[in-house]
């Protein structure tokens, strides 16, 4: 029955993630093992305890995949297009990570305690990096002069709402609607921050 050598750690973590998101932190390791077709003991051989498995499956990586794109920009292309690209990348990440953080919190895992310094927490780093992007865009005259932190909070806040709402209400948004929403967010922000014309 057990196929531990044919089941990778990545496969275990992906199935564990799916089970925890579907059933909450109370999802049993027996269920996870059954879905994978491995013995219950294999999970504990690989990950030690259920809490360790939960953390490994749901905790965000310190290196958020979209940060390299933020650090590299802005470039010389149309700035609205670049903001939309960032919105798409960040939204894809948030749609994956927001439900995971909610399950971790329900299990009593304090994500804040996992970083040695507050500055290293993923939301703090994300805000700092995006504010840096807006600051560079403002300095280059691509956007009008506002506080970069204010533009960042408006941008990230608008992107975070839908994943939280979707998770809490179980009301899904389809792909085209999500894309239309992100375009609306970017149009609204760029309409406010465009360097031409009078400030709104």
Element layout with pairings:
Blueprint: H1 9-23, H2 29-36, H3 40-47, H4 50-58, H5 67-72, H6 79-106, H7 122-139, H8 148-169, H9 175-193
Helix pairs in contact: 1-2, 1-4, 6-8, 6-9, 7-8, 8-9
Outline type: elongated
How many beta-strand segments?
0
Helix content: 55-70%
Spatial extent as radius of gyration: 20 Å
Name the helix and strand elements from N-terminus to C-terminus, one letter apiece: HHHHHHHHH
The DSSP helix count reads: 9
Beta-strand content:
under 5%
Question: Quick check: average pLDDT?
Answer: 84
Largest sheet: none
Low-confidence stretches: none
What gap, in angstroms, lies between the N and C termini? 66 Å
Class by alpha and beta content: mainly alpha
Organism: Nannocystis radixulma
Keywords: DNA-binding, Transcription, Transcription regulation
Domain HTH tetR-type: 6-65
Protein name: TetR/AcrR family transcriptional regulator
Can you walk me through this structure?
The protein is built from 9 helices and no strands. With 200 residues, the protein is an all-alpha fold. The longest helix has 28 residues. The relative contact order is 0.11.
What's the quick description here?
The chain is an all-alpha fold and 200 residues long. It has helices at residues 9-23, 29-36, 40-47, 50-58, 67-72, 79-106, 122-139, 148-169, 175-193. The chain is elongated.
